[in-house]
Design brief:
This protein is mainly beta and about 250 residues long. The protein has three domains: about 1-30, no CATH class; about 40-115, no CATH class; about 120-248, Distorted Sandwich (Glucose Permease (Domain IIA)), CATH 2.70.70. The chain has one helix and 16 strands. The protein has one helix at about 45-50; strands at about 5-10, 15-25, 75, 85-90, 95-100, 105, 115, 150-155, 160, 165-170, 180-185, 190-195, 200, 205-210, 215, 225-235. The strands form five sheets. A six-stranded antiparallel beta sheet has the order 8-16-12-11-10-14, with no helix packed on it. It is elongated, with a radius of gyration of 24 Å. The protein starts with a strand and ends in a 14-residue tail after the last strand.
Length: about 250
């Protein structure tokens, strides 16, 4: 930690003089690191932050978050003081903003995965459409000998949505056989891959919420017609060697 200098001055009324002294913040034992280091910040710092919250006559503590990692989402009480059934996003040191009030309560997730509202999930990655060709179907045309995702046949340009809250892991036109594609690193610790898109509406690092439109159905890459090919992979996986039947 690099010491910063602070200056204190004392006005001495009797002699009409001003006395000033220099001290570094580090000399005073004050931590001048405002970031808190994401979801891996110390519990002691979180407790200190909670202790400093201000109660008011209206009820609960005003939200604060000096120990939260900028860009992360937290349930109230997990590095963010505030309502425990509310999901907050850390905009900056001491600046949490409300994402949503969780109707079924807030779920504290593992380190490096955003917290999320319980029970928040979309019924389908293509609202109004169901699986038309399932994961696991055997066919020698596929590299692994079986179909590695669920297909949702739907008209060109149909919106595809986030099935869970999460962060966009990638969004590009470099999917090869998968065409234009997007990866959603979801709140449950899985990566969901949206393939053959005609349009991408999110960028790498974007925070997205359940039901948010990510792009549009297309037929880019190796495809016989407009549909979404939807894969469920281990978190961060860039290949489809270990997919499972999509669940969320």
């Amino acid at each position: 930690m690099t010491p910063r200098r602070i200056y204190g001055c004392l006005f001495v009324a009797l002699v009409g003089t001003v006395a000033c002294a220099n001290e570094s913040i580090s000399d005073l034992g004050i931590d001048d690191d405002p970031t808190g280091g994401g979801k891996t910040g110390s519990g002691d710092a979180a407790a200190a932050d909670g202790a400093s919250s201000v109660l008011n006559d209206a009820g609960p503590a005003k939200p604060s978050g000096n120990n939260c990692g900028v860009g992360y989402r937290y349930c109230g009480g997990n590095k963010i003081t505030g309502e425990t059934d509310t999901l907050y996003e850390c905009k900056g040191p001491g600046e949490p903003g409300v994402v949503e009030k969780c109707a079924m309560g807030c779920q504290i997730n593992p380190v490096d995965i955003d917290d999320s509202c319980k029970g928040s999930r979309a019924d389908s990655p293509v609202p109004g459409y169901v699986v038309t060709y399932a994961w696991g179907e055997k066919d020698s045309v596929y590299r692994l000998g079986y179909h590695t995702g669920d297909d949702y046949a739907s008209p060109m340009g149909t919106p595809v949505v986030a099935v869970l809250n999460g962060t966009i892991g990638w969004s590009n036109d470099d999917g090869g056989d998968f065409g234009h594609w997007i990866a959603l690193d979801a709140s449950n610790g899985r990566t969901y891959v949206y393939c053959h898109l005609s349009e991408r509406d999110v960028q790498v690092g974007d925070k997205v919420t359940v039901g948010q439109v990510l792009g549009k159905v297309g037929t880019t890459g190796f495809s016989t017609g407009p549909h979404l090919h939807f894969e469920d992979r281990p978190l961060g996986a860039t290949t489809n060697d270990n997919t499972r039947k999509p669940t969320w």
